[in-house]
Amino acid sequence: MAKSPAKKTPKKTQVGFEESLWDAANKLRGSVESAEYKHIVLSLIFLKFISDKFEVRKNVIAAEHGDQYIDMVAFYTMENIFYLPEDARWSFIQMNAKQDDIAVKIDSALHAVEKSNKSLAGALPDNYFSRLGLDASKLSALIDTINNIDTIAKESADSAEEAKSEEDLVGRVYEYFLGKFAASEGKGGGEFYTPKSIVTLIADMIEPFSGKIYDPCCGSGGMFVQSLKFINSHNGNQKNVSIYGQEYTNTTYKLAKMNLAVRGISGNLGGVAGDSFFKDQHPDLKADYIMANPPFNQKQWRADNELVDDARWAGYPTPPTGNANYAWIMHMISKLSEHGTAGFVLANGSMSSNTSGEGDIRQKIIENDLVDCMIALPEQLFYTTQIPVCLWFISKDKRGNDEKGLLKRRDRQGETLFIDAREMGSMVNRTLKELTNDDIAKITETYHIWRGEELATEKQKSGKEYQDIAGYCKSATLEDMKANDYVLTPGRYVGAAELVDDGIPFETKMTELSQTLYSQMNQAQELDKAIRKNLEALGYGK
């Protein structure tokens, strides 16, 4: 007799658990500033996740080698798993969640984790929970909610794909929370979070398959995470890339370290948080890919007598003190390898400004044939600002094949692609818009086909070769840009979209429009009479 199919063990985590967790986190409102409680929540999620991984590995070690090996650190690090002392494990935190000194115990646990794992040096909050003076009952309720997240589902998964998806659960939580915190914090949220659709677009455009990836203002590490997602989704090997980054704000630096650690991503974010202009953590780095979202229009980033003769501006005018946009551009250009590509977000003003010599710097960048593509983005993409933004793509080598011959590209020296994507995107709520997957696919396909990539060959075989489209894209020459005073605004190049002929003769259309207009004018007269009559009835007649 055939056996009945075994029933699946119900999983703790259900659809919408992120929202439930967010509601639990919001109970901390009033106890601490909103800018603080993201560190509370994400630190606890981090501790829960690494504890779950530790427990699974500990059981495997006991089964395969015996209990005498379960406290040998090397057996954990060999599988990229953090070793946890007993009082740093989630089970210990959960057991003591109702105690008045739970905040002290959490701080001690985080300290023990960092002390036992050198790769986490500087990543975790130091005596953070104790200093905040949190209400113990609210903290206990949050611990109970986080305890319901089943971060380990590998053994009950039906397929490798499901296991992979569930193992990134904590990544989903981080991604969700970082976005929610950015939205709730307003302007300050942009310091640690770039909207996912923009990060995805940059990664899909520059295709960081192999080499060194760098972000000089990495926030919570979203660019790195998306780079690795891109590699995995294209069946690449993330061991072929190395991560380098830097972050100015210490608390955000810690967020980035945790964000990478929960995904098992090894990255070099420098020994400390620091200003990329004054305390460069990677002075000798030459990166194959740069992805960044620098602070928009950063004012007074240096004093008049500082960094005047810096090597990063060699061959260019010194960036002005009043706006750091071109300092960021020059910093990133200086960090690119011989065949490197950079994709980064900047305020729209960077494409046309002539203030304090910015136009001269831009002209030199264009004359040096470094600008590969410019994209004008829709408004309302950011939680934190309504400033219109654009994407710059810089390429140090437009000659064709890349350094390792992975992607065959055509020689596009003297050419720059302009894309006007301002009409793209869909509203996700009353104030926020995002690029859809179809939007991202359309933009990246346009760029890849224009570059003549081998990846686009099948599309080209089906007759889909690059062509300018009025109102959307234009392949411009250096002469075109010179004629436009070296302004890089896509709208100057793509022109207006062609109107679709609806087949209705002009005379017919004009007659219909005139009749509609006369009808509306008559209605307006009747409305005016009604309004006048009502005003007279109220004693305000003329």
What does this entry look like structurally?
By secondary structure, the protein is α/β, with parallel strands linked by helices. Helices cover 42% and strands 11% of the residues. The protein has helices spanning 17-26, 34-65, 74-77, 90-95, 102-116, 128-132, 136-147, 160-167, 169-185, 196-206, 222-233, 250-261, 325-335, 358-367, 437-451, 457-461, 478-483, 491-494, 506-537, and strands at 211-215, 241-245, 267-268, 287-292, 336-347, 371-376, 389-395, 415-420, 426-427, 433-434, 473-477. The strands form 2 sheets. The chain has a 9-stranded mixed sheet. It has a two-stranded antiparallel ribbon with strand order 9-10. Helix 2 (34-65) runs antiparallel to helix 9 (169-185), helix 2 (34-65) packs parallel to helix 12 and helix 10 crosses helix 11. The longest helix has 32 residues, at 34-65. Residues 1-15, 153-167 and 455-462 have low confidence and may be disordered.
Poorly predicted runs: 1-15, 153-167, 455-462
Classify the beta-strand content into a percent band: 5-15%
> What oligomeric state do the depicted chains represent?
single chain
| Category by helix and strand content | alpha/beta
What is the element string, with H for helices and E for strands? HHHHHHHHHHEHEHEEHEHEEEEEHHEHHH
Helix content: 40-55%
Q: How large is the count of helical segments? A: 19
Strand order of the largest sheet: 3-2-1-4-5-7-6-8-11
- Name the overall outline: globular
Mean pLDDT: 84
